[in-house]
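Schema walk-through. Below, the input block comes first and the output block second. Nothing else is stored per chain. Lengths vary across the set, and this one has 136 residues.
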Amino acid sequence: MILEVLRRSMMGIAFGGIFTFIALTIMKVNAFEATIPEIWVHMGASLILGIYFGISSLIFGDDDSNIIRKSVIHFFMTYTAWLLIAGTVGWIPLNMSAVIWSTLAFILLYALNALGWYLYFKKLESTLNKHLENQK
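--- output ---
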């Protein structure tokens, strides 16, 4: 279990680094200047979110509890972690309209991600069922 947490953390750091590199590239192309402390804070937040997203999927482990309950818990934990980090580093201005719009964007992206995984596993299920029928 510890090795799995470390593996997922490293994957999260890698994705956080990739997103940071993309953001820095956009800044460079648009000639946007930022101080090293600003970049350091935002990169740290990106890496922390990457670690969180890498580890948080462990909630969907192999136990027999309800997938809907796991999804609801994962959603609220992820929203809370994202809101705390994004609000702390200034990605979201801390006023009501910005928080509401950011929340709506988060819900939309979370739903699209969930739909993507649902469609992926439905396709996998169909492929496996066809393979089993051919084995008869």
